[in-house]
Amino acid sequence: MPKDLRNIERITFLEKNNIVYQEILPLRVDASTRKYFRIVLKNGKTLVLMDDELKRNRLPEFTELSVFLINHGLHVPEVFIKDFEHGFLLIEDLGDDTFTHLLQKGVDEAFLYQLGTDALIKIAHINERPKCCKDLTKERIVNDICFFADWYIPMSKGSQLTEDERQEFIDLITPLADLAFKVPNKMVLWDYHVDNIMLTECKEECAVIDFQDAMWGPLTYDIMSLLEDARRDVRADIQEKMKQVFFDSLTNIKKEDFDDSYAFFSMFRHMRVLGRFTILGYVNGKPQYLTFVPHLWQMLEKTLQYPKFEKIKAWVDKVLPPQKRIIPQRKPVTEAMILAAGRGVRMRELTNNKPKPLIEVGSKALIDYNFDRVKNAGIKDVVVNLCYQGEMLKEHISSHHPDFLITYSVETEALETGGGIKNALKYFKNDAFFVCNSDVFFEEETIKPAMWRMMDAWDENKYDILLLLQDINNICGDKGNGDYRIINGKLKRNTHKDEGYPYMFAGIYIIKKSVFKNIEDIKFSSVKLFDKAQENGRLGYVVNTSTFYHVGTPEALKMAEEKLKS
To answer: What global pTM score does this model have?
Structure first.
């Protein structure tokens, strides 16, 4: 949604609820997609507007847990007005004195961490379970720690883990996760750290401002999260004292069980956060989180010395030696081309007055799914080739995707896929770039999107082209026999439409400019380039594991719509 339109919605929300204000001031944003605004009232008092435009931040849970925690003697922002439909909460303004801010001003570290620990002791003694708190399960823990294996490691070592290496990681972590559950389950706030804790007005207690992701899980998680903070180095004596204070407040728990659970969550959190901060830095465009990587590694390396982590330490040392424990780097594939010049004749009358990329499926034009995918890959520089109904496409793109730097490559006659790319080579700064067919449509169902996995697999010294493939058994719409099979790790194309080829080309690839050298043709299919790369042993692949919608005909379009509705 355009920024000015969302601003109108914020003002409408305030006016509808009779909030007479004199100023709206933006506040610092956090790692989530929500935004905050300080509402200065006419009488000088203030409130905070929480804006969750994308509705990803669990406002109903925030509201329920605010009441729950207040009823149990915790200081949290009270919710005054809620509008879940439009993504707004009007809440109590607790000021700006986060622990981060206070520590920067020189407030005593030991004093603040004592208050933070006192609040966790209160929570640890709440036996009632909030209705909205789901279980922090072993399955969730194993899934989350894979952010480390699937995001951080490939972008720090420059290549993805092999299937065997990844499976070995999971096989080692899964039994170790049992250590976490050697202590009782209680309410776990999940994001308990110095950015999310504030000093109350009385200066004798702390207030918690972020808790909507709370779960029901082992009570060691939040104290570990407070004391082993990714954002700062907590003094060692404070860590040990507060850890002991928290343990001493508990009953009927063995120290060894407590230490095992704490140590596992320390390893889990540091690995998980290394992956999450990689995503925040490169997918969400928040590079400031990458600066915490060296500190995270200091803490993780210390935790890996725990006696029961000997095997997982050996695995980490093997796949990621110390010299590779760096701030992750993305590969220089930062441009994309979206092919949109064709008419889509198999769509028959549906493309009489509009190009195929503008056909809607799931209330969204096909080409929009591709722009979303390219955006999620951290790419802003996009070339679009145009021919049939080019002006209509240009108008749609400019109105729906203003955040991109778009160059149009206009063709007087459609040059097919290979010819269209060759005609646009002059617009690319880098040697390698993505190409996306504009009618590619699938919903990401994996921890790491397909284009990021393709970047992990890309090796310019090994490949000239890298294809995204799709298992033909996981396709909705047009099927038929597949395009490729894999023999000893190499691709072989199905040149005669035979059976026994289990993979279809999924319409996305990385390609090097150099493959066009010595090609004199003006109008040709990119398959010609694929075959040449295959012949030279330089055709790579990544297999897409999400459900793929192949909408080449009106019948396939209808099938896709029905599946999406179901």
So the answer is: 0.89
